[in-house]
Amino acid sequence: MSPRTSRTRKGGIRTDTDLEHKKKGTRQERASFLILCEGKTEKDYFVGMRSRQGPHIDVDTPKVDHLSIVREAVARRSDEYDAVWCVLDTELDEVLRRR
Predict the structure, then answer these.
(1) Nearest 5°: phi and psi at 69?
(2) What HEC string does the chain produce?
């Protein structure tokens, strides 16, 4: 039987393993982001945005003050992530003035 001829069992279930129908090519690399936020609500929001087709998202909530979250983001920049973001529930100018 040729690979293009399909076999069916009782009930119409296909039993052949024709792999010619698969698309050929390479898989596109997904962007990778680290998001540092201050609370559980923000973390839940970004974790809920994860999808198979979208960017890879890691979310962390360090238990520190706002300025320390910014410092943590700078310290955790690496080749592992395309970008590191901070999500803060305050104005950044106010945080930077406290330095």
Answers:
(1) -65, -40
(2) CCCCCCCECCCCCECCCCCCCCCCCCCCCCCEEEEEECCHHHHHHHHCCCCCCCCEEEEECCCCCHHHHHHHHHHCCCCCCCEEEEECCCCHHHHHHCC
Compare 43 and 94 and report the one with higher pLDDT: 43
User: pTM to 2 decimals?
Assistant: 0.59
Beta-carbon contacts of residue 23 (< 8 Å; ≥ 6 apart): none
Q: What are the tens digits of pLDDT across the range 3-31?
A: 555 555 556 666 666 666 666 667 678 88
59 phi and psi angles, rounded to 5 deg: -125, 130
* Residue 37 CB neighbours (<10 A): 21
Amino acid at 54: G
How is the beta sheet containing 56-60 ordered, strand by strand?
56-60, 32-37, 83-87
The Cα 17–Cα 42 span in angstroms is 45
